Amino acid sequence: MTEENVLVFEEPIQIDYEKCKEPMFCRKCLEACIPGVFALVPLEDRAKVRREPRIWKLTVGWPNYCNECGVCVKVCPTGALSLKKKH
Amino acid sequence: MCLEHGLGLKWYLQPKNYQPSKANLKFIEEFFLNLEQVFTKKGKEKAEFLKNLVKNHRGQVVPLEDAIKVIKTAEEVYGDSFVAAAGYCPCRKIVRGEWLPVCIGWGVLISKSTEAGFHSQIPDEWKRYKVASGFIKEKIRYPISADEIAELMREWEEKYNLIHGVYTFGVPYVGSICNCEFPYCYAFKDRFTYGIKEVVFKSEYVAQIDPDLCVGCGKCATRCQFGAIHVSRKTGKAYIDPTKCFGCGVCRVACEQKAIKLVDREKISVAKNLW
């Protein structure tokens, strides 16, 4: 593993943030994804609020674990997810 | 074997490494204040961050019997002021949206993380969130005794196949035991993605199969999270790759023949330098 190729991953999934509004309450993709590719990111700073963050955003946290099975696209109730490559 | 902090005993069983004076309080506070921000980092930034993080926060996989010894040692060192809590696993929260109280911390870790607003109980406004069934009963798990923790860890290992890991907060202060599962655990993901083994070391043991007892049922292979076990069609026996084995010991739970035992990593020549 070289320093360079370790650090850059192509993100295989596209998230439409206009449609994905409350990922922490929905969590369908998080539950469906077996390798755990998605990661929720808080939009509140704990250092400021000193409690658990309540506003979260869905991201592709671990693109290197994705096998592009497309299960997240199928389970998403809002249609916010899509695979970048057509299979 | 850690030469600096573990002469004579394993480093995580040395009572001196549990002294609150060994903890890096400033690091603990910052760690919990930025807990979620930590997970948002990616790529080069993450690699740099990890290199910095492992100066204070390192982990090692431990089998159940050592995990129980760790929690008992912590109870002994802290004495009457021993307070432990099962906090919600931050990795599961972020990767699965589940709230699982499987990260056990004690002593200064509890006081500092509470100051940072890191709750060990679910606040009322979170009742909207789904709580993973089976893990959380109505019983509040804060605070809990060392014996209760030992019992819980045994239950988690059997039912949910969770691996135990001991983590430092300021090397060598032993501050917590996490019970987690690959691929939801950030420590393992970071180790495999960025190649920084200090994030979580392999355990001091390697699993070994007694070929005379093994019947090749393959139940152990379904438990292994590191792809170290393979049941050979040719011999009809399970084979554990010592170079891949993390020595967590969860495969033993599945073996009805009691054919798997843990041996010291140092005694296996191909695995002794693989941490």
Instruction: Tell me about the largest β-sheet of chain A.
Output: 2 strands, antiparallel
Helix percentage range of chain A:
25-40%
Number of helices of chain A: 5
Q: Tell me the number of strands of chain B.
A: 9
Report the β-strand fraction of chain A as a percent range.
15-25%
Can you put this structure into words, describing what you see?
By secondary structure, chain A is an alpha+beta fold. Chain A has a single domain, classed as Alpha-Beta Plaits. Chain A has five helices and four strands. Chain A is globular. Chain B has two domains: about 190 residues, no CATH class; about 60 residues, 2-Layer Sandwich (Alpha-Beta Plaits). Chain B has a five-stranded antiparallel beta sheet with strand order 1-4-5-3-2, with helices on both faces. Chain B has a two-stranded antiparallel ribbon with strand order 6-9. In chain B, a hairpin with a 6-residue loop joins β7 and β8. In chain B, α1 packs across α6 and α4 runs antiparallel to α7. Classes of the chains: A alpha+beta (about 90), B alpha+beta (about 280). At the A-B interface, α2, β2 and α4 of A face α2, α3, α5 and α8 of B.
